[in-house]
Input
Amino acid sequence: MPTAAKLVAAFWFALLAWFAAELSKNYVPEGTQFGIMSLIAGGFGFLTGWVFLGRRAGDTMAAAYSYGFSSSVILTFWSVFYFAFETMIHRSLDRRYRGPTEAVLGVFDLMRDYFLYVFKPDVLFILIVGGFFGGWITEKAARKWS
Output
């Protein structure tokens, strides 16, 4: 059921994920084709805010901060997993893997590489502070409109 807290959390984390994806583009090798990477990351942020954080609103402020931080971790994990999986599919279609086992293991190698693009000071700062702020603003929305 839609609530104000879910809506606030979804929009905030969509914006946060989009902005973090835009920041991480600075660290990717030159000539990389991004396509709609920021929009996909924003979609994961929207889903994380709606499904995870919005559902948990209405607790204490300490819990709200921890849920907001957890939401940042969750959206980062799923975004990195998606982009690694997508890259693995493209590489599989180019026959760069000898079998399905090597392709599945390739996802984890790609995730490690992609996490290195996220673990930069400015991107981490935005995700951590944005997560705490998202938890706070979601809790404020839950208290005001429920």
Observations:
- Residues 88 and 106 are 7 Å apart (CA to CA).
- The mean pLDDT is 95.
- The first helix runs from residue 4 to 24.
